[in-house]
């Protein structure tokens, strides 16, 4: 640890609330990696919508002060006791963990993997959490088959664009929803065959393009505002997968509603699909192959200096962004 600085830049919150609770600081102690942890010097930090839930209090932070941020990529600066042999100081890595909005982060080795030479730290930080969410949804939440009709809401967002691309790559027929014509154009460019807005409602058109049957599966991350309409367009024996709350959580759902079409309903989270290092490594290997061999596009909306975290957060919440937002310490 001797060559490391004692303090660093980081973003803290001391209470939950609006973007005004985000504090950019330059005097935060550099953490020491504990048993099984590595200390990563971040090059890029991924912004995810979940960060806004921890800031607003939809998901309560476990402690205060709390540093937001669930993923990043960079170089290992030091290791704690009992870390795997493939994680050594100097190794380029990508990780998922907590407290990523900082220059240095101590993360569990379970969620840290070395990067292949062909994958840059920028690409890795811009893809891991959102792309693995999309990949596990289409593999594990509902095993998508070629020819399936699949509805994706927020199709031009971070996870949304990955879903469009991966679904197309496995031969599914994608219907995407997004709030603006520009976003709908982007969803189409990334693989959506049909793109729809929200203003006139999407139910009728989804039923029409699917020949009155509805979709084999719906992947909905908007939550409260779209859940009911999504349920309407799932076909008999289909799957409704609700995996986010961008418009607020879905509450008070009566289970009996599923019996009208014997629908399967899931509310999965990525971390339960990649609970072990082997599961994470295997999913990441599959993702790197998709990126390299299928030429998937890692769309980066913008890279913001860490000091401009408020602007970045306002941008993702204001629905202006498409693809991935990154912070650079
Ligand atoms: P996005 O880039 O998709 O941003 C959120 C998008 O949601 C916006 O661009 C917007 O698209 C749409 N949206 C709809 N209603 C609202 C609203 N009221 N306020 C703000 N945005 C709204 O973010 P991410 O890719 O990071 O995450 C997408 C979703 O996936 C989130 O809900 C997130 O929580 C969830 N997620 C879940 C995971 C899991 O493990 N379950 C893991 C990762 C993400 P538009 O303007 O087109 O409506």
TrEMBL record:
Keywords: NADP, Oxidoreductase. PROSITE patterns: QOR_ZETA_CRYSTAL. It comes from Decorospora gaudefroyi. The keyword Heme does not apply. Pfam families: ADH_N, ADH_zinc_N. GO terms for cellular component: cytosol. InterPro entries: ADH-like_C, ADH-like_N, ER, GroES-like_sf, NAD(P)-bd_dom_sf, QOR-like, Quin_OxRdtase/zeta-crystal_CS. CDD domains: QOR2. The keyword Oxidoreductase applies. This is Probable quinone oxidoreductase. GO terms for molecular function: mRNA 3'-UTR AU-rich region binding; NADPH binding; quinone reductase (NADPH) activity; zinc ion binding. Residues 17-327 form the Enoyl reductase (ER) domain.
């Amino acid at each position: 640890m001797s060559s490391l600085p004692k303090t660093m830049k980081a973003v803290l919150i001391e209470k939950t609330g609006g973007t005004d609770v985000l504090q950019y600081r330059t005097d935060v102690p550099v953490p020491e990696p504990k048993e099984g942890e590595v200390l990563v010097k971040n090059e890029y930090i991924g912004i995810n919508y979940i960060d806004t839930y921890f800031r607003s209090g939809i998901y309560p932070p476990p402690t205060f002060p709390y540093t937001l941020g669930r993923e990043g990529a960079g170089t290992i600066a030091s290791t704690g006791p009992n870390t795997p042999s493939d994680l050594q100081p100097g190794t380029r890595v990508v990780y998922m963990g907590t407290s990523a909005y900082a220059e240095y982060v101590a993360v569990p080795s379970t969620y840290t993997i070395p990067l292949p030479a062909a994958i840059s730290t920028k690409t890795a930080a811009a893809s891991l959490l959102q792309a693995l969410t999309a990949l596990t949804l289409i593999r594990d939440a509902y095993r998508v088959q070629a020819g399936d009709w699949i509805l994706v809401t927020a199709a031009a967002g971070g996870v949304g664009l990955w879903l469009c691309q991966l679904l197309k790559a496995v031969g599914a027929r994608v219907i995407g929803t997004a709030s603006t014509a520009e976003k709908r154009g982007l969803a189409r460019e990334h693989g959506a065959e049909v793109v729809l807005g929200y203003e006139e409602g999407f139910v009728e058109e989804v039923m029409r393009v699917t020949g009155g049957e509805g979709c084999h599966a719906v992947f909905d991350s908007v939550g409260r505002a779209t859940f009911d309409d999504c349920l309407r367009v799932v076909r008999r024996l289909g799957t409704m997968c609700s995996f986010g709350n961008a418009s607020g959580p879905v509450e008070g759902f009566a289970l009996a509603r599923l019996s009208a079409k014997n629908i399967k309903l899931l509310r999965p989270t990525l971390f339960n699909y990649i609970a072990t290092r082997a599961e994470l490594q295997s999913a990441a290997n599959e993702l790197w192959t998709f990126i390299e061999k299928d030429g998937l596009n890692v769309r980066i909306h913008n890279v913001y200096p860490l000091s401009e975290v408020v602007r970045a957060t306002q941008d993702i919440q204001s629905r202006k962004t498409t693809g991935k937002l990154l912070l650079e310490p």
